[in-house]
Specification:
The chain is built from five helices and six strands, in the order αβααβαββββα. The chain is an alpha+beta fold. The protein has one domain (about 20-75, about 110-210).
């Protein structure tokens, strides 16, 4: 009697090394106090010294941060990219990385409008009918800044920073863009499906590092 076997059964015991194309690593950064409404109220009252719990003053922080990002890009001659809907950010990085000759530094800064969790202020009324502000968690479309960089040892990565509280930074190491050595001679574009996976020490070296 023949027992039906699937592909997994056939390969079981014969596979010595398997790659599922881990092409990037994420590090999410959180300010614990800014993850909930009561914590944000404490920040507004104690840190900013404002008696009324409202998100309105936070817009000034956002505007100042955005101005400083633009100022820094201009002062250091860092290329600026405004991402459009549907544009693949990795493709833009590939294009800029091809002409980046420094050992390390900021390759370019990108800005995108994206939906993200944030806080808003609602107007509520007490039992006497008097209005008062109330901070609630919501979502909205705000500017997200992407700082695409290269480090001589760490390789290519980007830092994503939301322009509005609670900010939620992300540090993303892009393994699929990793070059062969400092100086990155012979860097090749690697497709996300792993079909053209090329590394300084090969795929096994990447797995060992991870």
């Amino acid at each position: 009697m023949t027992v039906a076997r699937n592909v997994s059964d056939v390969l079981d015991g014969h596979v010595r090394f398997e790659v599922e194309c881990i092409d990037r690593m994420y590090l999410n950064v959180y300010v614990s106090q800014l993850q909930y409404a009561a914590g944000l109220v404490g920040y507004v009252q104690r840190q900013l010294g404002l008696p009324i719990a409202s998100t309105a003053p936070l817009a000034k922080i956002t505007d100042r941060f955005s101005r400083e990002v633009h100022r820094s890009a201009s002062a250091h001659a860092i290329p600026w990219v405004d991402f459009v809907k549907g544009q693949r950010k990795d493709d833009v990085m590939h294009e800029h990385l091809a002409g980046f000759t420094a050992q390390e530094g900021v390759v370019f800064i990108g800005r995108a409008q994206e939906k993200t969790p944030l806080f808003r202020t609602e107007k509520r009324r007490n039992a006497e009918g008097r209005a008062y502000p109330w901070i609630v968690k919501s979502t909205g479309v705000v500017n997200q800044f992407y700082f695409y960089c290269v480090d001589a040892e760490f390789g290519p990565f980007f830092i994503k920073f939301c322009s509005y509280i609670p900010y939620q930074p992300e540090v993303v190491h892009q393994w699929q863009l990793l070059g062969p050595a400092p100086g990155r001679q012979g860097r090749a574009r690697v497709h996300p499906d792993g079909q053209r996976l090329r590394r300084r020490r090969g795929s096994r070296g990447v797995a060992t590092d991870l």
